[in-house]
Specification:
The chain is mainly α. 71% of the residues lie in helices and 3% in strands. The protein is globular. The relative contact order is 0.04. The protein binds one DNA strand of 10 nucleotides through helix 1, helix 3, helix 5, helix 7 and helix 9.
Length: 459
DNA sequence: TTAGGGTTAG
């Protein structure tokens, strides 16, 4: 039945958008136009959302042109929706243009722009706008915190959260997942525990998003007990909750536990997704469960080929080469349904390093150099293979090559939190005030461990 | 009828 008036047409389109039927919403919009009904600012607000979710920039541009023809672009609803659409498509210039066309921009327009700026890596601009905008609400704070958290600006995200609380703005269920992801990234267990406590204080009941972030946060900070406890306390669990648990086990080297959790998850009737499989493969990898991992991959290939991504294939290469199954790994690489990127060869050379496979390491390093002559990691790995095999001449040749080609290695770092302070250490870093004591203690630990291993092997 | 903010893997 055709819609005669714009109000009922907009309501119908809005209902489709809310139900996630975005294609149908766009189709209905076209029909409404064909019926000769002129859309209003609310109609554009709704359909633009559908175009954004579908990531359809061409549809967005058509809608923009249509709104312009009707003289609606100065309206703040249309302006904000256009702004949000362009920002999410990564077209920041068009987003700014939409804001300039808006006659009276409000807190929504500014928040949409902030979110877009952060998504496109423009932190300083976003922060400047946030500081000077005339009105800020909870959603603006969440946009800043969430944007920083997703951009990896963990410290900024946590500081913003603290600032927000100081200003008396009450965080909601959207605030906490972002903050918890950030404290997890920073490895700040103590800070995260306080955030957990404040979530209980402000929210009372924790929803599935907050619960999932807690499970992941505790596991990523190495506290598996608290992670499992947070998981058990969740009233409602979805596939993301199970993924958080499985990945937590995997990251902490508990491959068997990850597999058991997966079995329980299947028993509840939930289907795994790509993240579940990745977590499982990762867990098997680190626990040396080669056959189990390979079997899971094969099962996914048969039952859910749609979830397989290059990362999963790379994990299998890693799994096989770590287990010294180089022939299987090479065969697997040859049979890949796509052209392997540099990461695949790095996974293979990693195994060569563990098992001192000098010949294969050399040929793989050649391949990596062909793909990316500036890549340092393969040089380092190759030189490690040589030094493990005792060919010091080759080691010094590689080191010379690295120097001559002006390649720089990116220094890895680790960190630990002690009494709410995070201490960061780089490779060979002696700048910590207690550096000497730390090294002495590490030495003592390593010595004891080697002793243990020696005792075990002579038993 | 209406525009802006959330979780898991790498």
């Amino acid at each position: 039945m055709p819609h005669r008036d714009v109000v009922s047409a907009t309501a119908a389109i809005g209902a489709l958008t809310r139900r996630g039927r975005h294609r149908d919403a766009l189709a209905m919009f076209s029909r409404v136009l064909a019926d000769g009904v002129a859309p209003n600012e609310f109609t554009f607000g709704t359909v633009l959302r559908s175009a954004t979710v579908l990531r359809a920039p061409r549809v967005g541009a058509q809608l923009h042109a249509c709104a312009a023809k009707l003289g609606l672009c100065s309206n703040v609803f249309v302006g904000s929706a256009l702004l949000d659409h362009y920002a999410k498509m990564g077209a920041m210039r068009e987003a700014q243009g939409a804001l300039e066309d808006t006659r009276e921009p409000n807190v929504v327009s500014n928040t949409a722009l902030i979110a877009g700026l952060l998504k496109n890596g423009m932190f300083d601009e976003a922060d400047r706008l946030f500081r000077r905008m005339p009105e800020r609400n909870l959603i603006s704070w969440n946009a800043m915190i969430g944007g920083c958290s997703q951009a990896g600006l963990s410290e900024d995200a946590v500081n913003l959260f603290l600032e927000m609380c100081r200003e008396g703005v009450t965080p909601n269920e959207s605030t906490f997942p972002c903050v918890l992801t950030s404290v997890a990234n920073a490895g700040a267990l103590g800070v995260g525990r306080s955030v957990h406590a404040s979530a209980i204080k402000f929210l009372g009941k924790l929803d599935v998003y907050v619960g999932n972030s807690l499970v992941s946060f505790y596991a990523r900070c190495g506290s598996l007990e608290e992670s499992v406890l947070a998981f058990k306390r969740m009233k409602q669990k979805n596939v993301v909750s199970w993924n958080a648990l499985i990945c937590g086990y995997a990251q902490n080297g508990k491959g068997e536990e990850a597999l058991n959790a997966y079995k329980t998850m299947r028993a509840t009737g939930l289907k795994p997704n790509n993240v579940t499989l990745l977590g499982l493969l990762f867990g098997c990898n680190h626990a040396g469960l080669v056959d189990e991992g390979y079997a899971l991959f094969k099962a996914a290939e048969r039952e859910q080929p749609g979830i397989l991504k290059p990362e999963h294939y790379a994990c299998v290469v890693d799994l096989l080469s770590r287990a010294k199954r180089f022939d299987d790994a090479k065969k697997f690489l040859e049979d890949l349904p796509f052209e392997p990127g540099i990461g695949f060869w790095k996974a293979l050379i990693g195994g060569c390093q563990i098992h001192w496979n000098r010949e294969l390491a050399e040929s793989v390093a050649e391949r990596i150099h062909a793909l990316d002559p500036k890549d340092t990691s393969s040089y380092i790995l190759l030189s490690n293979v040589y030094s493990a095999a005792g060919s010091w001449q080759s080691v010094s040749r590689i080191r010379r090559e690295i120097k001559e080609k002006g390649l720089k290695r990116i220094t890895g770092c680790s960190w630990i939190e002690v009494q709410d302070k995070v201490h960061v250490f780089f490779n060979g870093d002696c700048r910590h005030p207690q550096s000497e004591e730390i090294c002495a203690m590490l030495g003592a630990c390593l010595y004891t461990r080697e002793d243990d291993q020696h005792e075990q092997s002579t038993e």
